[in-house]
Every structure is written in C-alpha cells, then in structure tokens.
Amino acid sequence: MKTNLLLSFHRIALILIGCFIFYVLWNLKGAMRDQTLDYFFSRSFITRMDAAEVSWSHAANSRSRLAEALTGPSLMIEADIVMRGRDPKEPIMAHPPDTDSDITLREWLEGVKEYGKGIKLDFKSMEAVSPSLVLLQEVLTEPYRPVWINADIFSGPGGQIGPLQCHTFLSVVTRLPSHTVLSLGWTTGWTAGTDNPGYSWDMVHMMEKICRDLKHPVTFPVRAALLAKSFSQLTWLLKQSDRYTLTVWTGHSDEFSLQDLLPYREEFATSRIYFDLPDSLRAQIISAQ
C-alpha cells in the first residue's frame, strides 16, 4: 500500500511538472520576441545581431521610389498608407496631405514580395488600417519576412497632430501573425532654439500599460533629438519586457549629437535598439561600440 501511495504521488508530481512545462512553453509561444535580426542574419544581410546594422529607405510612396528602395542596399523599406481620396476607394501609398498616388498598396506589396526586404507600413488614419491588413495577409504569405506596422497612438512631447485611437488600432492589428512587429509611438514636435521637453514618465507609463499584455513584439519609435532628456524614462520602458525594442529616428532639421545616443547602446544589448538614421551616423554608432 505504501508503494502504491508513493507511485500515486510520483504520478501527480509528473503531471504537475508536465502542466508547468506546458504553461511555460505556451506563454513563450504566445509572447513573441522580435525576429527581424534573425531574418537578416540568417541571410547574411548583417554580420552580427546588431540592430544598428539595419539600414532604411523612407517614403517609398511611388513606383520610382519603391524600385529604388528594392534595388538599393537598404534592408527595411518604409512607406505610408492612406485611402485614395477619389473612386475607386482603396489603400494607396501616400503621405498626408496627398490623397492620390501612382501605386496602390496591392501593387506595392506585389512588388515587395519578390525581394528579401523587410517592410514598415505607417498608418496616419484608421480608415486605411483594416483593408490594408486584409491585403497584407493576402499578398505577403512568407511567414518570417520582417513586417512592421507603425502608428502614433499617444500624444508625445511637442506633438501637434492627433494620434490614432490606440484601442481601436490595437483591436485590429493584434489579429496579425504573432511575429509581426507593432511599432507604437507618440506624436512629437521639435523646435530649434527652444527647450524641447523629453518623453515624460506619464507618457512611458501609459505606453507600457497598453503594451504589457500584447503577444506581439513591440518597438517604440523615439525621436533622437529628445533622447538626452528621456534616458531614465525610456530605459525603464525598455526593461519592462524582452519583447520591447527602441527605434531611433530623426526629423530633417532636428539637432542632436552622437553622445545623446551612445548611453542607450551602453545600457542595452545591441539587438535592442534600431537606428533609423542616415547611414553615416549609423556607421559612427557601430564603430563607437
């Protein structure tokens, strides 16, 4: 009888261990980390798992700009999506205030799928989101290509343009495959010759609250000129989850120094911070490590 009791306890222990392992594996499966660098490294497009090696093309919102980006050296192609301002109403590649384009989203995606580039689709209004994501899943069926979906969902320092409604946006984009990177940011502004504020604690706390239960990897696009005043806030935010990364970007006339960026490189693994910056500055960042 004692032997049978021990066997019963042994079976119960094995069942409990099995349940725990299943729970851990299920959660690891559900909460996806960013696989962008894995994709590029596996294809020898980058030499190491360093997000600063990822190069960018911007505003590929026409046939000519897309062709240039596809045949050029950049690994990630960024483009903007709006709904056409006339019939037929459909998603097109354009940045407001433009409401027309010589290329639709469907045509854009058809062109991209023949190349090994990653894409970042930037949404400025909710109207274009749902029909665009239907096209995305219909045309781009390759499972591991880097696909980033970008929108500003909160007001940030100096932001004058209204953000997208965060809950509405997330209710749509979270239906995408779990490897899709959600690029979730703040509207911002920067003015030369003034004391521009950084990202506040309230801003990063609100962002973390909305992102903590997401299963997708999340990157936070942050303005380079605001980083020096935001170190404590943004490092705290990045430390809240291994799913989080930063993507540093700049406006055309923004002023900042290399020294504003390097403390972030020193604080985190090089895989955690992308630099959507001019190639010459990215080279300096890499060599400074």
Summarize the helices and strands and which ones pair or pack.
Elements: H1 2-30, H2 36-42, E1 56-57, H3 63-71, E2 76-83, E3 91-93, H4 105-112, E4 118-123, H5 129-139, E5 147-155, H6 166-173, E6 181-187, H7 201-211, E7 218-223, H8 231-238, E8 244-249, H9 258-267, E9 273-276, H10 279-288
Parallel strand pairs: 1-2, 2-4, 4-5, 5-6, 6-7, 7-8, 8-9
Antiparallel strand pairs: 2-3
Helix pairs in contact: 4-5, 7-8, 9-10
Provide tags for this entry:
single chain; 289 residues; alpha/beta; nine-stranded mixed beta sheet; 10 helices; 18% strand; globular
Walk me through what this model shows.
Mean pLDDT is 91; it is low at 12-29. The protein has helices at residues 2-30, 36-42, 63-71, 105-112, 129-139, 166-173, 201-211, 231-238, 258-267, 279-288, and strands spanning 56-57, 76-83, 91-93, 118-123, 147-155, 181-187, 218-223, 244-249, 273-276. It is globular and about 45 Å long. It is built from ten helices and nine strands. It has 289 residues and is an alpha/beta fold. The relative contact order is 0.11. Strands 1, 2, 3, 4, 5, 6, 7, 8 and 9 form a nine-stranded mixed sheet that branches.
- H-E string: HHEHEEHEHEHEHEHEHEH
Report the span from N to C terminus: 66 Å
Rg over alpha carbons: 21 Å
What fraction of residues sit in β-strands? 15-25%
Low-confidence stretches: 12-29
Helix content: 25-40%
Shape: globular
Helix/sheet category: alpha/beta
Q: How many E strands?
A: 9
Question: What is the averaged pLDDT score?
Answer: 91
Number of helices: 10
Main beta-sheet strand count, sense and barrel state: 9 strands, mixed
